[in-house]
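Posting for a labmate who doesn't have an account.
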Amino acid sequence: MNKINFKAHNYEKFHDFKDIMIQAFGIGCSLCESDEIEYVHQNHPPIIGNLIKNQGKNLTDQEVDKLIAKPLEQWQAFDEQNANQMIPTFLCMNCFEIEKDKNEE
C-alpha cells in the first residue's frame, strides 16, 4: 500500500454553503468516503456552494451550469493532481485525526 502524503498544516476547514458539493457531486472523504467532510487541502479552487451563494441572487439552472463549469474542471484537475501525489483532497474529522496522529509518532 502506498503511503499517504499528509501534513496537517496543509489543510483548512471545509465550508461549503448548504453542502452543495457533497449533495450535487457526491464528494466524500478521500480516504473513507464519508460525506462528513471537515477539511480540504489548501490552495483549492473556489468552493462551489460558496461561489453560488456569493452571487446574491436566485440563479437559473443554465446560469448555475455556466458559473460552475470552470470551477468544476479546476476541482477535477486539483483532485487528480492530489491523487497522483497520494494527497487526500478532502478529509473527515476521523481520518484527519488518524493521519495527524500517525505523523506525530
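Reply:
Got it, the C-alpha cells are right above this. The CA atoms of residues 10 and 42 lie 6 Å apart.
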